[in-house]
From TrEMBL:
Residues 15-116 form the Cyclic nucleotide-binding domain. The keyword Transcription regulation applies. InterPro entries: cNMP-bd_dom, cNMP-bd_dom_sf, Env_Response_Regulators, HTH_CRP, RmlC-like_jellyroll, WH_DNA-bd_sf. GO terms for molecular function: DNA binding; DNA-binding transcription factor activity. GO terms for cellular component: cytosol. Keywords: DNA-binding, Transcription, Transcription regulation. This is Cyclic nucleotide-binding protein. It comes from Flavobacterium enshiense DK69. Residues 130-198 form the HTH crp-type domain.
Amino acid sequence: MIPEELLESHNALQKKYAKGDTIFHEGDLPVNYFQIISGDVKMSNFNDDGKEFIQGIFHPKQSFGEPPLFLNRVYPANAIAVSDCELFVLPKSSFLNLVKENASVSLSIIENLAQRLHYKSVMAAEISSQEPEHRLLKLFDYSITFFKIEKEADGYRIDLTRQQMADLTGLRVETVIRTIKGLEKKNEIKIINRKVYR
């Protein structure tokens, strides 16, 4: 996303979070820009029954939580460390100055936000109307494109747990497990060492 040396030149801090740590809470007013150095972060909500719905999972070199930062509105979801992670943390005022001074960074952020908006639109349509097989295949195919996953000998490896697949598609874990087995029988995917390959 933003080159590390540019973040460092604007005095971004490097902070470590342990797996399960909350980076910010739903309802917090944003004060920082976050970009991942290592590890993974998810943004999610919990309904009244405690069921989690994952809005997105973010990986190294990706940023998260920018829309509320630009809009000066509260976060619509929690950001939680999926694994031990290290982040660049840049105060809002420094981030906005960096964006104003660097046209290439502005374009990169616009492209990234547009990709996320497109993903949300695609998945919202899938979740509201499509069968589990279709939802999961759309999630896999979009993940391959969005995260620029490189093809391996066995195909494109989808690095999501069954729980994450369920939380991203609005399905139950049991449904995901059953559907994945069905997709394997139809040769739509491969399962190797419990990992899904498309």
